[in-house]
Task: structure prediction
Amino acid sequence: MIQIDKALLDDLFEKAKESDRLRMNYDLRTSTSDNSQRMLNAMLPGTVVPVHRHPQSNENVILLCGRLDVVIYSVDNKEKERIHLDPSAGSYGGVIPAGAWHTVDVLEPSVIYEAKDGSYGQDGSVTLEEYKA
Result:
């Protein structure tokens, strides 16, 4: 069993601090032949997650710790919706519909569990910048 505990999250935060991207993933798949995306994503304020979409799958996002906003955009890069996640306030996560342009705004060190069908880049996922090019 892979145990998701404070020690694992602390280790991910340390690695995120060392990363130029200010975030670090932890793959939860049990086999490289598993074509899903199931991972923990430790993110620090200041990380930039490009606006992107997953046209072939919903994305499940559950916030384990921290505070962040999930931001949904229109194709013309206008903010449509902002959903504040904060487990201490009873707001734990949600399901981002397939095809929705989205990103996150990290307000304090946060770890999310992300799950969707297909791995990024092999499932039609694309950033808004790539889509407009």
Summary: The chain has a mean pLDDT of 93. The radius of gyration is 14 Å.
